[in-house]
Amino acid sequence: MQKNKYCILGLFVLMTLASCDNDRVFDEYQSVPDEWDKDERIEFKFTPPDTINAYNLFVNLRNTENYKFSNLFLIVELGYPNGKTLKDTLEYRMAYPDGTFMGTGFTDLKENKLWYKGYIDPFVFEESGEYTVNIQHAMRKNGTVEGVDKLEGITDIGFRIEHSKTN
């Protein structure tokens, strides 16, 4: 009897936690092995729920203290169902001036939620069908032209779509 009580309590807690994220439309992560190769593109495929409402799009990532930079450059491609592609080169600050990493987390693993689309103008998916997002790093050391071949300290890359608060 006591065991059933704990199972029911555990199930209730899980359901409560799952229902707290009402804004989420799509949220997926992919792990990066020990190093993120400059030629490796992390791909996400999704079908948005409609072509009417506005959404916020985010790149999520987790980094450890092995990340050696205070910023991060990413190339993000958004592929539409009709074949059109939007390609953006984005820069994100990853650390404060004192070297402390931004992001959330109490351990050496920090989670970052980085704006991609929707922060200035509402983003509306113009077409119905399957979209593709490809994310690739574009890091370079100061004063060099060559890119960083193997980026250390990034453990997971994610892509998230939320309902816009402006709807």
Write structural notes for this entry:
With 167 residues, the chain is mostly beta strands. It has one domain: Jelly Rolls (Sandwich). Helices cover 11% and strands 44% of the residues. The chain is built from 1 helix and 11 strands; from the N terminus they run αβββββββββββ. The protein has one helix at 2-19, and strands at 24-31, 35-37, 42-46, 54-63, 71-79, 85-93, 110-117, 123-124, 131-137, 150-152, 154-163. The strands form 3 sheets. Strands 1, 4, 7, 8 and 11 form a 5-stranded antiparallel beta sheet that branches. A 4-stranded antiparallel beta sheet has the order 3-9-5-6, with no helix packed on it. It is globular and about 45 Å long. It starts with a helix and ends with a strand. Mean pLDDT is 88; it is low at 9-18.
* Mean pLDDT across residues: 88
* Proper CATH architecture: Sandwich
How many helices in DSSP terms? 1
What helical percentage do the residues reach? Answer: 10-25%
Main pleated-sheet profile: 5 strands, antiparallel
Measure the end-to-end span: 47 Å
% residues in beta strands: 35-45%
- Count every beta strand, where a strand is a DSSP E run of 2 or more residues: 11
From the 3D structure, determine the CATH topology: Jelly Rolls
**Could you say how many structural domains there are in total?**
1
Alpha-beta content class: mainly beta
Radius of gyration: 18 Å
Order of helices and strands: HEEEEEEEEEEE
Please give the CATH class. Answer: Mainly Beta
Low-confidence stretches: 9-18
Q: Globular, elongated, flat, extended or rod-shaped: what is the shape?
A: globular
